[in-house]
Amino acid sequence: MGDKTVINRLNLVDPTTATGAAKVSLDAVKGAFGMVPNMRQAMANAPVVVGALMGFWAALGKGKLDAKTREAVAIAVAEANLCGYCLAEHTAMGQSHGLSVGQVRLYRTRVVGDAGLDAVVKLARAIVRQSGHESDAELADARSAGLGDGEIAEVVANVAVNYFTNYFNHVADPALDFPAVK
Question: Model pTM?
Answer without folding.
Answer: 0.89
